[in-house]
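Annex B. Sample input.
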Amino acid sequence: MSERRIPLERIRTDGWFERLGESIGSFHTLCDVLGQRFFAFALIAGARVSSLMIDRFNPDQSLVEFAFGGPDDAGSGIGGGGESQRLTVLEFRQRLVAVLMSDEPKGPPASDIGEDLEALQKHIGPRALLLAPLYGYGLKDLLFDGKKSTIVVDRGGQILDFDVPSFRARLLDHVQEDLERGVQRDGGTAIDLNNVDEAETAAKDDDWEKVVQLLGSWPMPLAIYWRTPEGQMLPEQSKQRIAEGLGLLGTACAKLGDQGQGEEVLRLAVQYAQDGSSAAAIFTRLGSMFMDSERWGEAIGPLRRARALGGTASEVLPSLATVLIRRERHLAAYALVREAESAKVPVQTLKPLRETIEKKLGKPLERWEKLVG
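Annex B, continued. Sample output.
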């Protein structure tokens, strides 16, 4: 039997969580308290959160009142339905993961799909379709050769393929990893600024797993703390040190393949940094993360902000020029290269950028340089 290719564009669910958030008034609070991924898990599992009792000093012990609705209720956000239950945040996370780990009804074989989109969705699995974009998997095609079906995905520009059961299992591995990061917190949720020193050392050694181990419990309690009067009145030095720690954690998440979590953590770091001493480095990290995932247009804003806040020429200007070249804004990139040359950025760093620009702009640039030489 010849191989059949079924495009998956029509059943991709990219952005479903963000779009749903626009219709939920308490979306940001729920994300802060439960964790963004875990609130998404709640929607997938059909858990309807009716109330939160937030413990500011120990956020993981905040109480969640919820009920599981039927399949048609999944994704409807806050509301009633079913028998109401009350658990701490940590217990609620464990319950959600247990639901997601339970067996999902087996879909029809690929040979029976035909043009039926619902059959295609059931073959891959509704949970997998909703989990995939949370972990950066873009669905491309389903291949069927008569014996097994293979799903082809794009993750960060890398094309990967899995048989359908393996793809489901991989997504559930990510879910389990999130649970371990969210539950296994040695020493509770206290924010120990001394951990930043150790994390900086680990980052210099490219030991990103250790950075996550040291700082991985920070985002949720800090997101809640920032919204309190106590958080707003933190001494400036503490705010900047927290921002530096979050910056390291955001970079670590991105380096370990979790771009979404990395961006979320870096944006929290921006809130703590404001326009302070660590802000330029945070915006540089955010711009570099976008560059690593080839999101050239999105990198421009953070890098420009980093430069405006005093980021060093050697760290910011070559990156910003590179991004502008990628966006084919060669004249603007040329101005940055000249600025970097004036700032004594090493020639070996700027040479490939200048060569690319000169090749693109050609004779007009050559004549102009002679004129102003």
